């Protein structure tokens, strides 16, 4: 039986969709394999309930695996039913939601089951960037099914008993489950970034409904807009005081303070989130230096880019670009993380984030709230990379490096010969800041479009994205980039 409170596959669908909206497809399909005593096995619906219904009146396709039927394992007909749902969803341009409780490959069906996994992967690959794919793990998601979860746009996971793994914890050399449960939601959300949201079953289903309500149905039609019930000219009073935690700042900027943070537990120094501005869904990427929980600061972070943070942001920007979701960047970064571990991945990860920004054709607006220094500052949605509008708060610092560090290099001989090195550094640093690294200096050179008051951020962003609503931009003709 399922290890997820023995909730049935059909009950999960009923709890997720609008009341009485579900229509089952393929209810009479069963396994057709006869090897290894399979003729004696009952396989109702071959272990997966498939069909369509609505969430908030919007069409969605759904499959829900039933662990009471051979552990919810993937067999030939099981896979065929899911692939059929994908085919229908592609034709209709509607999201696919998978509710997972799968022991993995059905060994009795061997290569037929293996082929089923392959066809599922192909269906997911063809759907990628065309329709949103959402998966929620409620029980086991093992082996090949973990790969399917990795191909989804958003993955949810029940926080207590669900398991997601390619190799089970005890199968890892030098490890055992009690020592490090690599299949647990905590590990998969915090350490690997494979899981976007965790929670109990009820909260997961509620979050999926919220996510569907703010996402486009597909890459051509946008059903993600809603009437704005909030004042577009509302001032963000006190936003400077919470700028270190962008989630707090985004709450002030967003319509009715709505913020849905993505991959919250994974590399929290980089924030990825969905908000609403003037009723339109906007994807946000932001640097975090402080983390607040229930009004109390719980953690501090360096204002630097890490390899994990760059990867997290690049993946999110690519999703937004695929589904024509505008991108807002809140920049506050003064360099790259300096550590042996980070150095193994930072160059390639930063390159991928740089490419994601440059390659995205959606409306892109950046607000520099603190620092945007060096090539890390360029990477965070700079004008040079094609951001349509760049705003800066009055005290923003934009340049190559901190002014005092710059003058120590430029005036090294003078400082060494000076009787008062500190005074000389302060004097030259002030000159450098005014000429080269202040918001005004960047604005004079066209790298910043306007210097705005912090409290006017929502008002200016609403106007900016409204102006950019009909943006159309081409890229060189090619199959795809290779970064």
UniProtKB/TrEMBL annotation:
**Ranges for the CoA carboxyltransferase C-terminal domain?**
234-467
Q: Where is the CoA carboxyltransferase N-terminal domain?
A: 1-227
Top-level taxon: Bacteria
Q: Which InterPro entries match?
A: AccD/PCCB, AcCoA_carboxyl_beta, ClpP/crotonase-like_dom_sf, COA_CT_C, COA_CT_N
Q: What is this protein called?
A: Acyl-CoA carboxylase subunit beta
Source organism (scientific name)? Enterocloster alcoholdehydrogenati
């Amino acid at each position: 039986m399922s290890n997820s409170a023995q909730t049935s596959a059909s009950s999960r669908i009923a709890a997720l969709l609008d009341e009485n909206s579900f229509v089952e497809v393929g209810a009479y399909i069963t396994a057709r394999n006869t090897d290894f005593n399979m003729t004696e096995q009952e396989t109702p619906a071959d272990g997966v309930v498939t069909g369509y219904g609505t969430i908030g009146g919007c069409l969605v396709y759904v499959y829900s695996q039933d662990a009471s039927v051979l552990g919810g394992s993937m067999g030939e007909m099981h896979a065929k039913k899911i692939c059929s749902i994908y085919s229908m969803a592609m034709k209709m341009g509607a999201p696919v939601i998978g509710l997972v409780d799968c022991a993995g490959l059905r060994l009795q069906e061997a290569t037929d089951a293996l082929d089923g996994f392959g066809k599922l992967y192909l269906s997911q690959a063809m759907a990628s960037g065309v329709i949103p794919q959402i998966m929620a793990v409620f029980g086991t998601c093992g082996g090949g099914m973990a790969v399917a979860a990795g191909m989804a746009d958003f993955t949810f996971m029940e926080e207590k008993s669900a398991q997601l793994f390619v190799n089970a914890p005890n199968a890892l050399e030098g490890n055992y489950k009690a020592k490090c449960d690599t299949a647990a939601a905590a590990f998969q959300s915090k350490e690997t970034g494979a899981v976007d949201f965790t929670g109990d079953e009820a909260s997961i289903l509620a979050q999926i409904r919220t996510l569907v309500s703010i996402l486009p149905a597909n890459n051509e039609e946008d059903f993600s807009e809603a009437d704005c019930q909030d004042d577009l000219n509302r001032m963000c009073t006190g936003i400077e005081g919470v700028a270190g935690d962008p989630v707090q700042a985004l709450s002030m900027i967003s319509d009715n303070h709505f913020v849905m943070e993505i991959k919250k537990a994974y590399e929290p120094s980089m924030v990825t989130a969905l908000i609403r501005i003037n009723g339109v869904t906007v994807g946000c990427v932001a640097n975090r230096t402080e983390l607040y929980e229930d009004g109390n600061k719980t953690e501090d972070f360096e204002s630097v880019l890490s390899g994990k943070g760059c990867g997290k942001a690049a993946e999110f920007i690519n999703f937004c670009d695929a589904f024509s979701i505008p991108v807002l960047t809140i920049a506050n970064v003064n360099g790259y993380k300096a550590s042996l571990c980070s150095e193994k991945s930072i160059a390639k990860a930063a390159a991928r984030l740089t490419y994601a920004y440059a390659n995205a054709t959606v409306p892109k607006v950046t607000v520099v709230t603190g620092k945007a220094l060096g090539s890390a500052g360029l990477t965070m949605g700079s004008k040079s990379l094609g951001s349509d509008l760049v705003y800066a708060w009055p005290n923003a610092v934009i340049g190559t490096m901190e002014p005092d560090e710059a003058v120590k290099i430029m005036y090294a001989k003078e400082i060494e010969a000076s009787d008062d090195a500190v005074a000389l550094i302060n004097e030259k640093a002030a000159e450098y800041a005014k000429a080269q690294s202040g918001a005004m200096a960047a604005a004079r050179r066209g790298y910043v479009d306007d210097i705005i008051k912090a409290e006017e951020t929502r008002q200016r962003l609403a106007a900016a994205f409204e102006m950019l609503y009909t943006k159309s931009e081409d890229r060189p003709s090619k199959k795809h980039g290779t970064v």
